[in-house]
Amino acid sequence: MIKKTVEGVGPALEGVKDGMTLMLGGFGLCGIPENAIGELVRLGVRDLTCISNNAGVDDFGLGLLLQGHQIKKMIASYVGENAEFERQMLSGELEVELTPQGTLAEKCRAARSGFPAFYTPAGYGTEVAEGKEAREFNGKMYVLEYAFEADFSFVKAWKGDEAGNLIFKGTARNFNPPMCGAAKITVAEVEELLPAGALDPNEIHIPGIFVQRIFQGEGYEKRIEKRTVRSREE
Predict the structure, then answer these.
(1) Are 155 and 182 in contact (CB under 8 A)?
(2) How does the average pLDDT of the chain come out, rounded?
(3) Is residue 138 part of a domain?
(4) What is the pLDDT averaged over residues 80-92?
(5) CATH number (domain holding residue 61)
(6) What is the maximum span of the chain, computed from C-alpha positions, in angstroms?
(7) What is the pLDDT of residues 132-176, one digit of tens each?
(8) Overall pTM surpassing 0.90 (yes/no)
(9) Cα distance from N-terminal residue to C-terminal residue, the chain
(10) Which family does the record assign (predicted)?
């Protein structure tokens, strides 16, 4: 059986260069590839186009790349928790392409499936559809959206095996699955790396065919983006 394991985050990111387009899984701070983001910061690569549901917070997640002005363009669906992101966007330092959340997911899935484009009703009649082809189907208007083209996809899973098969846990199964196989190279970091064949085939969420590199991650913080609690009753 093919082994796709690499020894740590350094070899996993081999080939990442300035100006590349990267996909990064996660939703908020849940299920983000913390080790890969940390290595991108360490490498100092710049002029990146990042595709992710959101941009993390000021001091964690993709916010770390924003601090170092490593991101040239951000393609996301929600950006409301990052003050530095807002500052860079309003000052013109950062190019931003806001995309409806479902469209973002579908552009990932289309890329993985080999579909160059698809029609969706999301965004028709709004700024999202400006400059895009529109077509009527059964009396309803749809907007043509193109599949993403990315160099690397970085995802985070709970468990994986040496063949690249992945299992996600809870809500960390968000944008990670559709980003697997959606780029030229998919890199998976996992909390627990097992020998090939150790995972129950019926529990696997993503088969190894969609993963090129896998490594055992470490030091996960798993921060809570926003904690809301009720005052203790007297």
Answers:
(1) no
(2) 95
(3) no
(4) 90
(5) 3.40.1080.10
(6) 61
(7) 999 999 999 999 999 999 999 999 999 999 999 999 999 999 999
(8) yes
(9) 61
(10) Belongs to the 3-oxoacid CoA-transferase subunit A family.
